[in-house]
From TrEMBL:
Residues 286-369 form the PUA domain. Catalyzes the transfer of a phosphate group to glutamate to form L-glutamate 5-phosphate. Substrate binds at S61, D146, N158. It is found in: Cytoplasm. It comes from Rhodanobacter glycinis. GO terms for molecular function: ATP binding; glutamate 5-kinase activity; RNA binding. This is Glutamate 5-kinase. Its EC number is 2.7.2.11. GO terms for cellular component: cytosol. Pathway: Amino-acid biosynthesis; L-proline biosynthesis; L-glutamate 5-semialdehyde from L-glutamate: step 1/2. Its main location: cytoplasm. ATP binds at K21, S178, D179, T220, G221, G222, M223, R224, T225, K226.
Length: 385
């Protein structure tokens, strides 16, 4: 549903580098194979941006939809995760081929997994690759590696992936193309009284309550994941623009610096890049439970996590893994890189730092999580599941 006549045209924030996320619903033809129908205008926008000295990183969905179309009649035979992963594998080449057919510049595929974003070294390697491709005037096309990534196929994570990529490459703007022209006060497909929202200062609980689920049979995301992405981008000081990628005039207006859609502003101050990564990169399944004294110390933002404040290590994680730190009431306190594996943390729990070498026979340092590798969680977060 579109209500373009009620949406004012507004200037986009100044930008030199942007991440553009395009959903499956803009690339699949009536739930079938890929079509250039809406992709052409988006590709033209990227080309004109490049001609103007700007850089665009593309985060594109569509691989599963393309793979399903290749299977034709057999597509309905497998709806489990393995079948969807197989369809993603089949569809990667057609999806990249579609964008290459619409671009005069070389297109480069970059597949990322949660492990690439969780591991600091691989995270920085991915950053170097993307910036290198931009320096070569190539068009980076990023996608979650659906063939092995379980969470992407369940959660429609490409919106959130786009926000992480925006921070990864120091983007000035996150652009999310959808089949809805803006964020509405309610689902416009169900509520005729729904009205579009032109601007929002931040992603609030009230704003999140307006978001619905997935609106497409080929996509796995919805407006909620787009707001989650806007919140992540905003934490890195990056504003987000939501717009209708089906409307040629709307896409053409972007090239002129004008938005017909919803602009979600970012905080004035940027979060330190490392702290941002610690808060938003996928964490391991393990957690460290701490006592009230350690929770108070960490909340001031200048303390490391020492063995004496640890109550337990839950689940499994290795040295260098990103873990969540919780208190006795299951409240998320912080996230950080553990200097010790879970089995080691269990042996160190409640002990003094000077006992580390005696207990383990070696030492990686007096802190389990150093303050430079730790980021406090926002106060509004709910208790851990």
């Amino acid at each position: 549903m579109s209500m373009q006549s009620t949406l004012p045209e507004q200037p986009l924030p100044p930008w030199r580098r942007a991440v553009l996320k395009v959903g499956s619903n803009l690339l699949a033809a009536d739930g079938g194979g890929l079509t250039p129908r809406f992709a052409e205008a988006l590709a033209s926008f990227m080309a004109s941006s490049h001609a103007g000295g700007r850089q665009v990183v593309l985060v594109s969905s569509g691989a599963v939809a393309a793979g399903r179309a290749l299977l034709h009649a057999r597509a309905s035979a497998g709806r489990d995760l393995a079948a969807r992963q197989a369809m993603a594998s089949l569809g990667q080449a057609p999806m990249i081929g579609l964008w290459q057919s619409l671009s005069a510049r070389p297109v480069a595929q970059v597949l990322l997994t949660h492990d690439d974003l969780r591991n600091r070294r691989r995270y920085l390697n991915a950053r170097a690759t993307l910036l290198g491709l931009l320096a070569l005037d190539a068009v980076p096309v990023v996608n979650e590696n659906d063939t092995v990534a379980v969470d992407e196929l369940k959660l429609g994570d490409n919106d959130n992936l786009a926000a992480i990529v925006a921070a990864l490459v120091d983007a000035d703007l996150l652009l999310i193309a959808s089949d809805v022209d803006a964020l509405y006060t309610a689902d416009p497909r169900r509520d005729p009284a729904a009205t579009p929202i032109a601007q929002a200062d931040a992603v609030t609980p009230a704003l999140m309550a307006m978001a619905g689920g997935s609106g497409s049979i080929v996509g796995t995301g919805g407006m909620r994941t787009k707001l989650e992405a806007a919140e992540k981008a905003g934490a890195a000081g990056i504003p987000t623009a939501l717009f209708d990628g089906r409307n040629t005039a709307t896409v053409q207006a972007l090239a002129q610096g004008q938005l017909r859609g919803t602009l979600i502003h970012a905080p004035h101050t940027r979060m330190q890049a490392r702290k941002y990564w610690l808060l938003h990169a996928p964490a391991s399944s393990g957690r460290i439970r701490i006592d009230a004294g350690a929770a108070r110390a960490l909340s001031h933002g200048h303390a490391s996590l020492l063995p004496g404040g640890i109550l337990a290590a839950e689940g499994e994680f290795q040295r260098g893994d990103l873990v969540e730190i919780i208190d006795a009431s299951e409240r998320r306190i912080a996230r950080g890189l553990s200097q010790y594996a879970a089995v080691e943390v269990r042996r160190l729990a409640g002990r003094h730092s000077r006992e580390i070498e005696t207990l383990l026979g070696y030492s990686h340092g007096t802190e389990v999580v150093h303050r430079d590798d730790l980021a406090n969680m926002p106060d509004r977060l709910e208790p851990a599941a």
